[in-house]
């Protein structure tokens, strides 16, 4: 019986076949197919027509990262906001601008800030009276925002996330129109990058932009 069990195990461990010869087959007996980006997009567009699903559905990507470093350390999970070359949604994020300079406040309003203010906003945010998607600030007000550090966490204004600076229009453009992605479960990024009805070259351009932004978080050593 032991010999028979070994023979059966050997059968189930046999190498997977590259390509099925028929339209109907057991998927687990064959290697998972791999396609280039352009070919994969062509198949998605083809299946959309065959399945009569919405051509305006979003295209998502799953990116698995190797977060391991030397000496048993790991790269900390991160989040980023990136401007894509081709927008695929009319959604606009709500952005709050911290400033106590009236001229800067006026510039913020003119460029689409949802909320503009200074120290008086801190209490309202702590009490959940104000909720927006992103928070940006000018350097002069940062000492007064320290009570918000634990509340806002990764959305606390910082130069590393490009949410702290003097160029208010630039920050508003990034956070109102940008795409946010985060590392989930310590190593996975899942985010939408386009709509299926967009030209293939535009979808690929958006994909490249996201991948390039992810690569900026790669440690130098």
From TrEMBL:
The keyword Transferase does not apply. GO terms for cellular component: mitochondrial inner membrane; ribonucleoprotein complex; ribosome. The keyword Mitochondrion applies. Coiled coil: none annotated. Keywords: Mitochondrion, Ribonucleoprotein, Ribosomal protein, Transit peptide. PANTHER family: 54S RIBOSOMAL PROTEIN L1, MITOCHONDRIAL, LARGE RIBOSOMAL SUBUNIT PROTEIN UL1M. Belongs to the universal ribosomal protein uL1 family. This is Large ribosomal subunit protein uL1m.
């Amino acid at each position: 019986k032991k010999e028979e069990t070994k023979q059966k195990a050997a059968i189930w461990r046999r190498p997977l076949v590259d390509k099925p010869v028929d339209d109907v087959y057991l998927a687990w007996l064959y290697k998972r197919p791999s396609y280039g980006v352009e070919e994969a997009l062509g198949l998605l567009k083809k299946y959309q027509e065959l399945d009569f699903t919405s051509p305006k559905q979003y295209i998502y990507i799953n990116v698995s990262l190797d977060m391991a470093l030397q000496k048993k350390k790991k790269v900390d999970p991160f989040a980023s906001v990136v401007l894509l070359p081709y927008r695929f949604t009319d959604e606009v994020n709500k952005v709050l601008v911290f400033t106590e300079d009236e001229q800067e406040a006026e510039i913020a309003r003119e460029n689409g800030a949802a909320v503009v203010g200074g120290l008086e906003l801190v209490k309202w945010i702590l009490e959940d009276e104000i909720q927006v998607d992103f928070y940006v600030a000018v350097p002069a007000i940062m000492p007064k925002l320290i009570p918000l550090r634990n509340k806002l966490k990764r959305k606390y204004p910082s130069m590393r996330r490009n949410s702290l600076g003097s160029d208010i229009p630039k920050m508003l453009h990034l956070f109102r129109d940008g795409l946010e992605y985060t590392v989930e479960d310590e190593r996975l990024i899942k985010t939408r990058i386009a709509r299926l009805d967009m030209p293939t070259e535009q979808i690929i351009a958006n994909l490249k932009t996201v991948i390039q932004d992810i690569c900026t978080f790669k440690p130098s050593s």
